[in-house]
Sequence to fold (273 residues):
Amino acid sequence: MDISTLIGWVMAMGLIVWGIGFEKLGNFWDMQSLAIVVGGAIAALIASYPFRILKEVPKHILILFRGGKYNIPKLVDQMVDLAMLARQSGLLALEEKAEEIKDPFFKQSVLKIVDANDPDKVREMLEKELDDMAARHDEAAGIYEKGSAYAPAFGMIGTLVGLINMLKGMNLGDGGGASNLGQDMSVALITTFYGSAFANIFFQPIAKKLRIRQAEEELYCATIVEGVMAIQAGENPKFLREHLLSCMKKSQQKKLLLKAEKAGGGAAGGGEG
Fold:
């Protein structure tokens, strides 16, 4: 579980509250301003996106806290095992092994090469799936990127509302307008505060984290595509490992290569005994 987003939210809110001062928090609470900013931003998002995208919002929040789902080193090990099996028993032997794979994209990718499809056609189909996946991810992150633009915009709308009411009140001949001067001015300023706060504490971090999750999944799926295409081409498992490791961090590469060397040395020693 990845709780970095939650930690960031708590820290941001805590620091803002500390900066304001507990005794002055009441000065920053205004339901009218909150309605303009939050209600306006949500209404604008509803007007901007179809419900097929908006209904996925709860899933997006769960994705923020999901961690460690895409384990590239483990995937590379699986790919090497599949490559060894394919070289020993042929591609058809992978069909039974594919049934044990839980990830749908990984499973379908293996089954496509088992069916002895043309390699160029297989790559084209898999890359088309990657493009469709990227489009879905762009739609998801786009909601919050739009929200980060809408919130400050509605903050400015609230500011204009407060200023207009304040100036109108100043033109009244009786004392009623003057008595509402402070309230109107507070609406004008607090809406700008709310707009900036919601954009930078919530909308932008959610969009950024979804982009990071998108990059993780795309790297994972791209590794699958390269791996199954190499397996179909009959590439040597050792070269396959090195090829797939090339897209990983240097530290991960060294760790995985060292693990492979130890496993190879142990197997060789067992054979000699």
